């Protein structure tokens, strides 16, 4: 059976990515760059407070940028982990914790993260925090509720109704329990939170979709891949939205040898003849393997499929049925039968979500002209592997782009131009949220998406 050799790689996680991606010691990849056109600055506020802070609050990570609202320049970028992780790694766990009396503590935790981030921004840029006049926040609906101190009770049970999907502008010091300081925003600083669509399609998706160029090809599919894969299919100004429960497999979770993006983790796999070749994230001791991260998992699965070690129905070939598909001779990284089943369930969730939206819009996969993979995972996903395992339809080949952290771009856009508010409202007004589990035929679509 095939096994392989290793080489360190810097083209994915090294110098070229510096300033765009932060990889924490725990292996979390925080993306604070984006490749979308920002609006021209149209600042008309207090000239004494020309700066703004854009914040992307994710379930796991938080990214912030300090922006000059007059020139549009980004003065500093900061990224950190969301301290709410202690209450669970996913939004369902956070909802349960909030509904069990932990909401106030969770709000304090994320507020402290944002305060720490702002302090680091002004120190890095060498400016006075008192010149900050606005903070714009993009977040999924649960994170927005916890940030604002709203009840999560309605999102803990069917029909999963959030307390709010539009959020009023609020004074910074009415929201944050902290004293005025030269390192913190001005006394008149306001906080803006981008609107959401539903309990599981939030302002991060709305802001991300609204940050895309107006002349983007249509029909267009926007996907933010993660534990919950949010997707928006845009057709003639109409937006069909859904959230697919993909689970943690594509982030290294639920996989026996899976890990985050830590030194020593396999980040890429290719096949050469009868051998696997793989790249590892540099910095580990003596090239010692530490596991395999999300991008490597997709590559490894695709290569094993092409070599016949994984069959189209997901069963392992007899030669590796007991040992698993080994990447290295020692078997530090291997795909077991259970691993493959986890990957199949994750990709079926995404693929069936796409199928539902296409059917809802009366389209085929061939009709989609542009596919945008937002967020960190999209940046490192190899198109060939995503197509080979059936995560995305084959007709998407050559139509896929990865613009990075579009959620943060949406928050920056809101700081630079007030018309972004109307753009978000227009988007929400033209959007239809599709609940996948309630859609007729979803179960059949999910089952048909399990095989590779």
Determine the N-to-C terminus distance. Answer: 20 Å
The CATH architecture designation of the largest domain is 2-Layer Sandwich
Quaternary status? single chain
Assess the beta-strand content as a share of residues: 15-25%
Low-confidence parts:
7-19
Number of strands: 20
List the strand order in the largest sheet.
6-5-4-7-9-8
CATH topology title of the largest domain: Nucleotidyltransferase, domain 5
Task: Look at the helices and sheets and give the structural class.
Answer: alpha/beta
SS field, number of helical segments: 11
Key features?
single chain; 452 residues; alpha/beta; Nucleotidyltransferase, domain 5; 2 domains; six-stranded mixed beta sheet; 30% helix; globular
Describe the fold and architecture.
The protein has two domains: 172 residues, Domain of unknown function (DUF4445) (Nucleotidyltransferase, domain 5, 2-Layer Sandwich); 206 residues, Nucleotidyltransferase, domain 5. The longest helix has 35 residues. The strands form five sheets. Strands 6-5-4-7-9-8 form a six-stranded mixed sheet, sandwiched between helices. The protein has a six-stranded mixed sheet with strand order 19-18-10-11-12-20, with helices on both faces. A four-stranded mixed sheet has the order 1-14-13-15. It contains eleven helices and 20 strands. The relative contact order is 0.16. About 3% of the residues have low confidence. With 452 residues, it is of the alpha/beta class. 30% of the residues lie in helices and 23% in strands.
């Amino acid at each position: 059976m095939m096994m392989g050799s290793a080489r360190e790689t810097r083209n994915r996680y090294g110098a070229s990515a510096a300033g765009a991606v932060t990889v924490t010691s725990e292996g979390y990849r925080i993306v604070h760059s984006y490749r979308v056109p920002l609006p021209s600055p149209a600042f008309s506020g207090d000239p004494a407070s020309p700066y703004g802070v854009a914040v992307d609050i994710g379930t796991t990570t938080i990214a912030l940028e300090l922006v000059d609202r007059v020139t549009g320049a980004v003065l500093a970028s900061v990224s950190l982990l969301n301290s709410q992780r202690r209450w669970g790694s996913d939004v369902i766990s956070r909802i349960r914790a909030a509904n069990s009396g932990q909401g106030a503590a969770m709000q304090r935790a994320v507020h402290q993260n944002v305060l720490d981030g702002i302090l680091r921004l002004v120190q890095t840029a060498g400016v006075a925090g008192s010149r900050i006049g606005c903070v714009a926040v993009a977040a999924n609906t649960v994170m927005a509720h916890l940030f604002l101190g709203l009840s999560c009770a309605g999102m803990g049970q069917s029909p999963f109704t959030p307390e709010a999907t539009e959020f009023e502008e609020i004074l910074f010091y009415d929201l944050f329990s902290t004293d005025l300081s030269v390192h913190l925003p001005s006394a008149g600083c306001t906080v803006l939170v981008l609107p959401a669509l539903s309990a599981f399609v939030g302002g991060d998706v709305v802001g991300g979709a609204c940050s895309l160029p107006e002349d983007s090809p249509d029909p267009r599919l926007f996907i933010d891949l993660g534990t919950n894969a949010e997707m928006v299919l845009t057709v003639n100004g109409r937006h069909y939205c859904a959230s697919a429960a993909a689970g943690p497999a594509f982030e290294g979770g639920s996989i026996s040898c899976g890990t985050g993006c830590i030194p020593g983790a396999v980040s890429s796999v290719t096949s050469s003849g009868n051998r696997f070749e793989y790249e590892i994230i540099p910095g580990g001791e003596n090239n010692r393997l530490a596991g395999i991260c999300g991008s490597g998992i997709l590559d490894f699965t695709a290569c094993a499929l092409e070599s016949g070690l994984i069959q189209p129905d997901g069963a392992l070939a007899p030669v590796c049925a007991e040992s698993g598909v080994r990447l290295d001779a020692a078997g530090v990284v291997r795909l077991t039968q259970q691993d493959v089943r986890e990957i199949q369930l994750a990709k079926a969730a995404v693929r069936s979500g796409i199928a539902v939206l296409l059917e809802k819009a009366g389209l085929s996969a061939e009709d989609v002209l542009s596919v945008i993979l937002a967020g960190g995972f999209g940046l490192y996903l190899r198109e060939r592997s995503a197509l080979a395992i059936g995560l995305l339809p084959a007709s998407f080949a050559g139509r896929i782009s990865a613009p990075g952290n579009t959620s943060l771009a949406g928050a920056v856009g809101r700081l630079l131009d007030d018309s972004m508010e109307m753009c978000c409202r227009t988007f929400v007004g033209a959007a239809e949220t599709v609940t996948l589990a309630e859609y007729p035929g979803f179960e059949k679509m999910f089952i048909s998406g399990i095989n590779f």
